[in-house]
Amino acid sequence: MTLPDRARVVVIGGGVGGTSIAYHLVRRGWRDVVLLERAQLTSGSTFHSAGLVGQLRSTMPLTRLMMDSVALYTRLKDETGVDVGWRPVGSLRLASSRERMEELERQAGWGTSFGLPLELVSAAEAQRRFPLMTPEGVMGAAYLPTDGYLDPSGLALALAEGARRGGARIMEGVRVTAIKVDRGAVRGVDTDQGPVEAEVVVNAGGIYAPEIGAMVGLTLPIIPMAHQYLLARIKESIPEDLPTMRDPDLLVYFRRDAGGLVMGGYERDPAPWGLDGIAHDFNNRLLPEDWSRFEPLSQNAIKRVPSLEQGDVVKLINGPEAFTPDNEFVLGESSIRGFFVAAGFCAHGIAGAGGMGQAMAEWIVEGEPSLDLWKMDLRRFGEAYRNRNYTLARTVEIYSTYYDIHYPNEERQAGRPLHLSPTYRRLTELGAAFGEKSGWERPNWFEPNAASMDGLARPAGWAGQHWSAAIPAEHRATRERAGLFDETSFSKIEASGPGALSFLQRLCDNEMDRPVGSVTYTQMLNRRGGIECDFTVTRLEDDRFFIVTGTAFGNHDLAWMRKHDPLDGSVTLDDVGAARACLGLWGPRARDIMQPLTDADLSNDAFPYLTSQRITIGGVPCLALRVTYVGELGWELYCPVERGLELWDALWKAGSPLGMVAGGYRAIDSMRLEKGYRVWSSDITPEDNPYEAGLGFAVRLGKPADFIGKDALVRAKADGVTRRLRPLLLEDGGAIALGGEPVRISGRIAGRVTSGGYGYTVERSIAYAYLPSADAAPDTRAEVQVFGRWVPAVVAKEPLYDPAGERIRS
Fold it and tell me: Please, what's the b/e burial string for 775-805 (b: 16 or more CB within 10 A of its CB; e: otherwise)?
């Protein structure tokens, strides 16, 4: 086949990722699709993958990708004539400790809310289904009958055949040598056989994806890891319908393979590979067997399947797999328009390839995916991950803890500390228990504050993990007196220029043409009306705006804005996060603390809620925003980063005699939960519109400028809102929902928890969930499944705390 001069889209990489994207693009009607593979199809990581297909993930969108994959694998052979070897034999996940059994109970709740037929079974039932195992030490298992395994190479070849039948051209033995970019947009590729013009290029290069990304100046946080599994023959008969089995406490997995047994796992001392580059001829190749590294896994496997000890080893397969620092895919459009990435499949790319290709094709054709793919979105990785050592440390940690129980609010340790606030030394002296977000060290709480809550019992179960009595102490002190919080990690963006106002009017659903000094809470929406960004915008000057968003969302939000930049020079977008420190001071004594430090009038009349002023506090020039994320009187104070410590010291000296405490992010979260403030990525996502989310007050359909998503909101309003985000109060205050738990009303599943926790002022266990509008009225009775137990709850009217908003406007 002759290499064409141009194509609508060029897909780079002939593994399951690239072939799936090509397959789904032609199914969506794009015929001018070219897939380029440097060697032969499946010659990268696909050919040596173990082929397990497990569907349950921690969120519904991720699980949907896996469920869509299974639906595709079921029909692919009949459609293409190529056998993918799909065996829907089910899966078992064992628990050998009470803590692991709790994890399975939590996952069973997810399965229920996601619509998967997952059930918890006894150790005896697990052995009946997997007779090769010994039940010794097993407390139970989770069984999902719709999981299975397949032949990875067969899958890629079937997808390629389906793509060909749809008109795609698949070219093997063509190496991409450069990617053409002009004015921030992709224009095509150069290859060793000539150039190809294209308006879209997809990097599905697997372990080679970082090398391809570097061609456009993009750093992809992907590390190849040497992953091993064993193929053995045993004397015992292996049932045809033997389910796959994972024993996370022993770090191993199993599946049938023809007449043998596949066994692999995730060792504690993983081996990164290819850090100095990958040889150009590394195609269809494996790495040398590493028996010393594999031996602990083989011993663990024998503990669970004793017949392996007398089995015959057919082969130890050692192949590089592309891993990311958080064990999820890297998907989406990059900062280069038209340049997409689909890589970093973390050894579960086979399970998700079908759904991933479908989502990516939709993203390319429609401009955005219909699923909330934030957990896989390329934009979740910010500046910190341009540091190769940081990415490496994080990826090694995620691999070595692959099968560990990961409790909510768990803090990663690798690569820390990276970014420090100017107050870091002072926070350390005050006893901060640091967490980390996007490379920033941030205080979760200050342990000395726990002393004031002496005698308070630790929450039961998982809610008591990564917890301190300092959290309720800081919560209550802020409500009663004042709390000082370091929020320097917040992402900060400036939009300026003669076109800045019209630009923001087009992107934001709220009215942006407000007086200088106004602070506006708003969302940016996608065309379906889903919430893509959620933040505050301060008008500094007629043509200059200051945007503050979450620490983890700055890269995402800036990329969304740059995607819609008119590119006519009328708008300048700057990331100013590292240049400014931010301190938050909130509580009924906040004004008493600040007023002696400034000549500015801080009275309610002179400095009302949702306004900003440039003032000097203790000699430090600040941009003061009267806003709150905790539901109390107070300000966010932005100053030059080099003067952040000076500002902290001035406020600390003034506030300590009035009972002010240093507070952490966990107290902020409990206070915002009581107040009903939403968290983007959990309570609100690109799948939720503002009316469903209870944010209709921030929408201005009648503003003079149309905005992206307006038409969808008009239709939604006309059709009627069918679901609403509502708080539920659980009757058992010791039962804490942590997110993902199913909610039942009148005996049927009505929704799932988006976020939950304990409100230390209202003294109730709180859970938020989207409920059908007919079931969303206050006082509606409901149940929330918390670790296998249905806990009675009631739908409440919000906000639960200070419903009239008197405290924030005091």
Answer: bbeeebebbbbbbeeebebebbebbbbbeee
Contact criterion met (CB below 8 Å) for 479 and 671: yes
Phi (first) and psi of residue 153, to 5 degrees? -65, -40
Q: Are 533 and 553 in contact (CB under 8 A)?
A: yes
Q: How far apart are CA 267 and CA 297, in angstroms?
A: 7
Tens of pLDDT along 604-642? 999 999 999 999 999 999 999 999 999 999 999 999 999
The one catalytic residue in 208, 229, 253, 760 is 253
Catalytic residue among 534, 669, 683, 775: 534
CA pair distance 159, 152, nearest whole angstrom: 11
Four-point Cα dihedral 221, 330, 381, 228, nearest 10: -40
Tokens of 398: 């995620």
* Active-site residue, 253 included: yes
Catalytic one among 24, 73, 151, 227?
Answer: 227
List, for residues 3-39, the tens digit of each pLDDT value: 999 999 999 999 999 999 999 999 999 999 999 999 9
pLDDT given at position 258: 85
Give dist(CA 306, CA 304) in Å, integer.
6
Residue 423 and residue 441 in contact, taking contact as beta carbons nearer than 8 Å? no
pTM above 0.90, yes or no: yes
Contact criterion met (CB below 8 Å) for 106 and 114: no
Establish whether 534 is a catalytic residue. yes
Instruction: Report helix, strand or coil for 674.
Output: helix
